[in-house]
Amino acid sequence: WSIPVLEASELHVLQAGVPQPGGNAAVVAAGTGLGEAFLPRIDGRFRVLSSEAGHTDFAARTEREMALVAHLTERFGRASLEHVVSGPGLLNLHVFTHQLRPACEAVPDLAAPGAAAQITGAALDGRCPHCGEALAMFAEALGAEAGNLGLRGTATAGVYIGGGIVPRVLPALHTDAFGRAFLDKAPMDDLMARMPLYAILNSDAGLLGAAVAAHAIAP
Fold it and tell me: N or C: more exposed end of the chain, with fewer CB within 10 A?
């Protein structure tokens, strides 16, 4: 609900694309879980269609991700998208990338409240290569799902990536691997290259959206 009222300063452009003023949009938000919503444009304005896409199956694209699916299936019975693309998903990726390796000095306690932030910090400053792999896998999976969502919703007005974790991992979203994961949707490569992609910087976008929704239904 906040998408139509966000200022340019509250958005970080990951791919400029060619925005279509009359097109649809979509939102994927990674935080304590994974949320997705479609924003079809009807009668000149966005409508909001919620989903439970975070609980859909995680689709592996590489041999490493296939190994991750096997690991997650052994742990949880199935591999859902939220098991990978979320704050808890980053912890799962840490466990996966540190298998059969010495304890991670950068993240002494995965159960601690700040563990995800510690993984991100150790990855971005190069202190732990296995944390680096965990963050890279997170970013690629997020990029791939953002592209999938864009295709499902024909989001020619833009795909928006939100959630509390996103502003902290922006460097990981500017990698070639993230970009390829978003774009690599043959035979729809041309459509994906034209599709705008934004990261939401406003940490209160959810509250802002709630206010917009309340205003819309107020008598």
Answer: C
Nearest to 60 by CA among 172, 165, 137, 151: 137
Chain mean pLDDT for the chain: 94
Which pLDDT score is estimated for 102? 77
pLDDT of residue 177: 95
According to DSSP H, which parts of 77-169 are helical? 87-97, 115-124, 129-153
182 contacts: CB under 8 Å, gap ≥ 6: 15, 143, 144, 146, 147, 150, 192, 197
**Residue 189: Cβ-neighbour burial (10 angstroms; 0-12, 13-18, 19+):** exposed
DSSP state at residue 100: T
pLDDT in tens, 184-198: 999 999 999 999 999
Per-residue pLDDT at 120 exceeds 90: yes
Instruction: Report whether the peptide linkage leading into residue 187 is cis, meaning its omega lies within 30 degrees of zero.
Output: yes
Where residue 129 falls (left for φ over 0; alpha for ψ -120 to 50; beta otherwise) is: alpha
Q: Rounded to whole angstroms, how far apart are CA atoms 188 and 172?
A: 24
| Gap between the Cα atoms of 146 and 62, Å rounded | 17
pLDDT at residue 143 in the model: 97
